[in-house]
Amino acid sequence: MSAHKRRKVKLLSETIMDGKKIQTMDEETVGQHTWSELPTELLEVIMSHLTLKENIRVSSVCKRWSTVAISVRIVNQPPWIMYFPKYGNLYEFYDPLHRKTYSLELPELQESKVCYAKDGWLLLYKPRTHSVFFYDPFTQEIIQLPKFEMTYQIVAFSSPPTSPDCIVFTVKHISPTVVAISTCQPGVLEWTTVNYHNRLPFVSSIWNKMVFCKGLFYCLSLTGWLGVFNPQERTWVIRVMPPPKCPENFFAKNWWKGKFMAEHNGDIYVMYTCCNENPIVFKLDQMNKVWEEMKSLGGLTLFASFLSSHAKADLHGSMRNSVYFSKVRFYGKRCISYSLSDIRYYPRKHGHDWGEQDPFESIWVEPPKDLSIFM
Which of 95, 181, 211, 258 could form a disulfide bond with 273, CB atoms 3.0-4.6 angstroms apart? Predict the structure, then answer.
């Protein structure tokens, strides 16, 4: 074995052992199978166990290792699934990366329904008292909003409630040509509600989806029309553009129940899925006013749940270019996902029927910064 190859083997061995106890090859085995001959898939497995610091170090070995190291480099952590119990105050949290489940007693959430989640905060509603409030499940901080009666409308907010720019937005169907839009901010005494007329029919219901993107709230109706609300100018418009091109059996097979919407760096994504059918992902082309079907997410990962969905970049290599659903199989050991690269579900043949799931059962939340809260 050449001196160059020996140095390469030694570097990777030392790098791995620096932070983790990972078994390495002995000199005799290395002589038969050098590190430079390892297939890319095996290098990905090895490097996926490295810390960020170790990953950066091995990426300097050679061009091939640099490409593999970057492909599995973890910069961001994925969100966790938060499950709302039918009884009691014990809430479970599932980490899809490490496939671990944690639990917390959260008596403050008794008789509450989750409405939305973003930036580590939940927005919740108590139907009996009409109480609306923000809640951080890991610090247990509460920020109250004025009371407000919610029926079948959906809700979203723009930024964390600790930010002065935070706006809570909800839209309610009045008639095919009229919607009632209500907004609120932490610290104010009451909600502001205004009726708006639609140029195009826009039926608002619990099946709608919302995101906040570049200062605007985007709302996708049941039939795919896109409504846009500007909170600064207080204007509401229905975009004159064709809805996403959905399957012909869209309503017959309940595709509309498996509809999700997410935002990332100014781009808006919409996804439809139904049972074991392959999901269809669209990205909004703002310039040409069309929905473009996506065959790849370019390394992004979508996390879909009924009330709010998220898009993340720079996750673990195996999680990229995939959609993760807020449902776990195999006795809580495997999150249902769909890989756009492999064009298949994981676990295989485990697509989820969203028509059978309680929409208030689970939601994706940002993971805690400190795991000691579970000790």
Answer: 258
